[in-house]
Amino acid sequence: MKIPFALSVLALVLLGGATAQAQPDGPRQLGGAPSVPTAPRPRPVPAPRQLDSTPVAPPDSTRRATITAPLSAPMPSAPPAPAAPVYAPAPAGQLPGGSLRPTRFQVGLKNGLVYSANDVETKNPLFGHSYLLLDGQRKFELAEVGFYEDETGHYVRTTLPNSSREATLRREKTGRISLYSITTTQYSSPGGFGYPGYGYGYGGYGMGGFGYPYGGYRTVKTEYFSKDNGPIQNLTSSNLLMATRDNAGAQQLLFDSRRYQHITTASYVVGGGLLVAGLLQTLSPTRAGISPLTFAALPVLLIPVVLQSKQAANQRQAIALYNATQ
Predict the structure, then answer these.
(1) I want to staple 172 with a disulfide (CB 3.0 to 4.6 A). Which of 149, 179, 274, 300 is the partner?
(2) Which bin fits 176, alpha (ψ -120 to 50), beta or left (φ > 0)?
């Protein structure tokens, strides 16, 4: 009796296991091909996150897009309003405007000190040394002054070429080549050479006074130059040719100036010789009247009057050209 009961229990267990295994399969038609079970869908595996990367937030689909309109050009600012005038009428009995003025002039001493002043006067007493008077109070002798300024220009104190004498030169033009001049008064004895309104000095030209046949005083303006603030030199074509060797245009002008100088010198020699010979013939007791040589000397002596102005013009043009191209 126990054996059939055990067999029945074993049969139930086997039938239950077969039924449990057949549950996932769908209903199968009779006589049809057996169905292949579908493969399970793989689960998405998230990508490994890097430690150094920054998490990016997902885009916000609900955020509305912002449309950026182009900025308009800035409006031009209005010009500043002019300053309002100040009402400052002049008191009765007084001139309009102030009577004060800023410091205008400078005086430099040879020891390096520089003084500023509103007024600078040059005093030349009859006895004693010449001196400068600043604002009517401070006094400096010219021997201790290196340069000074006043209402007439800029002046320097320096020694002249080939001389140990110190003189006061007025600055005429500034640049790599600066021009300086000194004006003196000379006496021309009767019978000397020269013509009214002209005189000649070494390194420059004079104007004013009378020469032949009159005697008197004449003003002679002698000119000098300085290159790169160096020592003073005589204003001659030869010296300028040495100073402007690096400028072909200035050299050509100075060659013409030197040619005018040679012609001037020859005119003085020839004209002077004719004039002396004419005077000797005129004063001869055996001759009546003025010798023709005297009249022949006059046009020859007028040649330097014309060429001196051309020579000076060429020199100044060469200096201006040199200063402009450096």
Answers:
(1) 179
(2) alpha
